[in-house]
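Section 5.1 Outputs to date
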Amino acid sequence: MMNKIMLGNEAIARGLYEAGCRLVSSYPGTPSTEITQYASEYNEIYAEWAPNEKVAMEVALGASIAGGRAFCGMKHVGLNVAADPLFIGSYIGVNGGMVIAVADDPGMHSSQNEQDSRYYARASKTPMLEPADSGECLNFTKKAFEFSEAFDTPVIIRLSTRVSHSQSIVEIGERTNIDIKEYAKDPAKRVMMPSYARGRHVIVEERLKQLTEYSETCEFNTIENNNTKLGIITSGVAYQYAKEAFGDSASYLKLGMVYPLPEKLIVDFAAKFERVIVVEELDDYIESHCKALGLDVDGKNVLPICGEFSQEVISENLLGKTAEYKKLDVNIPVRPPVLCAGCPHRGVFYLFKKLKLFVSGDIGCYTLGAAPPLNGMDTTLCMGASISAMHGYNKIRPESAKQSVAVIGDSTFMHSGITGLIDITYNKGISTVVILDNSTTGMTGHQDNPSTTHTLKGEEVEQIMIEDICRASGVKNIRIVDPYDIVEFENVLKEELTVAEPSVIIGRRPCALLKYVKHAPPLKVNADKCAGCKACMQIACSCISVKDKKAVINSTLCKGCNLCAKLCRFGAIGG
């Protein structure tokens, strides 16, 4: 045994290793991505990136059915995608233990919504654990597999951005080698047609009763008795915030098992105190449970329902204390969210704005093209929705097809864009789809995907060509363009927007931040030629600024993409 400081996500991966997990399948999504990346470093674990979260969970279910311990990880919106196999997984149970990690994102640091995944546990009747630090991440993961096999159920571990990405001490152990369990054919357990599913539902309800009874004495739920006036009921990282704000001036019921929640344990705890406060991020999930038990508790009446908590939020709202800060009397400019220097997507969004197109956008790093001054998107819904929503928009406004495009990245196209494209061709749509292929999953830190040439383990594989998929989906007009060639890209856009049938434009150039990409020398501005017109500023490149009414290029950032030079009418920018 030894102690080590680890990220919460790293500790989850270590827990998978020590628990004898054999298979990990996930789709990258901040703040959950690193779990699978760390897991892939263990040779004893087969780890893969799946095309999307639904596939990942189905792969893990298949591994569990085969008798091996299995895991899949995702962020909160990924659980929406994986909901179908989650609910069925609860019905069929497990053979080898199965653990699912879902990382919520209070404060929306990298997400399109705030979503409380605890409701998925309740809706699917799947037990859920919630660790509060890295040490618990490791321990809860190991115990979750035992828990899974003991109760014949998948187990969800709920994380949050701060638990996933903060560090604390964990105790490292050795791997326990768990034999693959024997597989026995059992259609009544695993074939979910109505006649069998009805019987499984009865079993799920009986299991839920057993789990609820177990929650009363569950080792994951702990009490810290400090005084008889104030009791705090909490879970996860909210416990850390409450503990730092109140210290020993309150007693705590820390719920490590958040579904099903105990009843007697909570009632007995609350009876000891003059006041009980439920401290939880996002929804009033635990608070509603307490009130259903007839308890008079404070919660969202004194704490916010939106946004991320912190020690300061707890102190200000519950103690009326404002933390003292050292203030820096310097007006530091705000750094707006922008596409990276040399990003191959930049010119595409510039053209969208220039041509005044309606742009149905998607989820990815290219979503930054929606920010000023590019303003290159009208909508962003969810993964893959750009293509489907564009089809619906054009069916209502058929005349708009000549002035609208859908834009999506290569990884997102593989995730859930393909079916939308098939919908267009099958239903005689005439939408134009722009696929930005930067040869990686850029939004979560350069993970491979089916359209690249390597697996998560670094093995070389046959590249799945996006144009082949588009062709097989029924698209006849497919154009491949280098997005750095802004003149050619504009011509192709204009041409394809006039075509009265589905068309796809693939903007293909690797992400500028990939290690193997070689860049041209940085550009320079000839101050004598610069007219100070700021045309080069329209592309929102972080390399370019204006000083003394003249454009200036930061040579340490510039990738030599030459886009700004093509916008300069005075020839002031060059190598």
